[in-house]
Amino acid sequence: MGSGSLGSTTSPDGGRTFSRRWVLGAGAATALTTGLTACGSGGDSGGAGGALTALVYGDDAAKVQQAAVERFNASKAAKSTGATVRLEKVPGSEYPAKLRTAMGSPNAPDVFFNWGGGSIKAYQEAGQLVDLTDVIEGDPVLKDGFLPSVLDAGALGGRRYGIPMRGMQPVILFYNKSVFTEHKLQPPTTWDQLLDTNAKLKKAGITPFALGGADIWPELMWLEYLVDRIGGPEVFARIQNGDSAGWGDPAVLKAAETVRDLVDDGAFGKGFNSVSYVNGGAPAVFAQGKAAMHLMGSWEYSTQLGKFPDFAKKHLGWAAFPEFDSGTGDVRNVVGNPTNYWSVNARTRNKDAAIAFLKDCASQAYAKDLVANGDIPTTSHAAELLSSAPNPEFAAFQYEMVERAPAFTLSWDQAVDPSVQTPMLTEINKLFVGQSTPSRFVSALKELK
Asked: Order of strands, edge to edge, in the sheet holding 163-164?
């Protein structure tokens, strides 16, 4: 979900439009092979020297990675490993398919940008990735350089295959401060408080939550947080690791029932299924005071700043998702897009050089470049840099939120296997619009393989 997956925080829709395109079939991938030449691994294993290729999603944020390449190529590490790195930028909409094609060719990249989770599962199963678990544990720069919840979020089956290389984008409960002040409300910290707040808002003729149901993925955020708060991160971790029976966990059913209760109670209004986030509908409903709250990725701030700057600067508030009464999940847990990752091709000609290059992502210079680009770094000591962020208060809130999180669950539609992604989203939408019941929803998901 969102631009933490696919672009800089200035993307109006968070880059979300492209976040599912890595499921393109082989035919589409073949049609997009033009432009990937002279990549680094070339089928060799263990040879030294030469130029390594780093394949990156080619948006505005790629300038941060370009600066990292230039630093590395001028560094002692480049000299000692006998290698340099060349950055290859691929236009965003083409990236997933071109990566897939490249990874199946003799000219596969040595290092490549990805979203973690399901986006690299096929490569991991095919033995195409370097398992970085022991490398990270044995290197203080990598082990201590990043927030633990973000490092863990990029793992598969408890093993780490990625190094964080872009900004974090947690899902946040945004609220309209003016509406809350007028009606003497506070951001809810428990589920009972949320329901009480909903009742007061509806009585005042205000829809509690904006929701871009036409896009479906904003609905997903509700289930992600509810399953976490009710059953803890272990519930979805089981599903992410390929056990479809995990959908039968009681926490999933309870989350689905809670969603239906919210819909039936009017928490999202009556027309949410025809409202889109991508075309600006849901942000407008929120900014214009027709809805008091909006559960959305952290890119909501930049979206509002671009579309409704006065609202963003004066009236936009933010808070954590509330605790669920009797739930076992830690209220500090976060869902969303932890970050993007660099992974290393198992066929790289110079593993030592590739890993030396990845270490730059833990540097202050790299973190400063991210902040200057409007991103919130996932490095351990980034807090001191956030005073120069576009909105220091919001930047600090995000960073502290993720820093304190025992777990950061990757957005479900990026975490699951590509074959599961679309049918899962279809079932979620059916639940929200009343075409399915909570029990049928669970049964349908358990059938997804």
From this structure: 83-90, 50-57, 111-114, 341-344, 163-164
**Residue carrying structure tokens 């202050």:** 364
Condensed to tens digits (0 to 9), the pLDDT of residues 399-411 reads 999 999 999 999 9
Instruction: Record the pTM.
Output: 0.86
In angstroms, the CA 34 to CA 80 distance is 34
From residue 446, give the alpha-carbon distance in Å to each of 101, 205, 206, 409, 423.
Answer: 31, 39, 37, 20, 11
Q: How many residues does the chain have?
A: 449
DSSP one-letter code for 259: H
Give the strand pairing for 169-176 and 334-337. antiparallel
Q: Please name each of the domains of the chain with its CATH number.
A: 3-168+339-381 (3.40.190.10), 170-336+412-446 (3.40.190.10)
Q: Whole-angstrom Cα distance, residue 211 to residue 204?
A: 19
Contact 415, 19 (CB under 8 A): no
The tokens describing 387, both together, are: 């005073």
> Which tokens is 257 given?
């029932």
The closest alpha carbon to 243, from 104, 48, 420, belongs to 420
Closest CA to 198 of 123, 264, 135: 264
Residue 248 neighbours by CB under 8 Å, 6+ apart: 442, 446
Task: Tell me what percent of the chain is helix, strand and coil, each rounded to the nearest 5.
Answer: 50, 15, 35
Q: Which residues contact 329 (CB under 8 A, 6 or more apart)?
A: 228, 229, 230, 231, 232, 233
Burial of residue 409 (CB within 10 Å: 0-12, 13-18, 19+) is: buried
| Dist CA 420 CA 18 (whole Å) | 17
Dihedral of the CA atoms 47, 49, 51, 54 (nearest 10)? 60
Q: How far is Cα 173 from Cα 225, in angstroms, rounded to an integer?
A: 11
- Which 8-state DSSP code applies to residue 175? E
Structure tokens at 439: 């029990």
Give 46-100 pLDDT, tens digit per residue.
334 589 999 999 988 899 999 999 999 999 999 999 999 999 999 888 898 999 9
Q: What is the C-alpha separation between 12 and 306, in angstroms, rounded?
A: 8
Tell me the C-alpha distance between 303 and 319, whole Å: 17
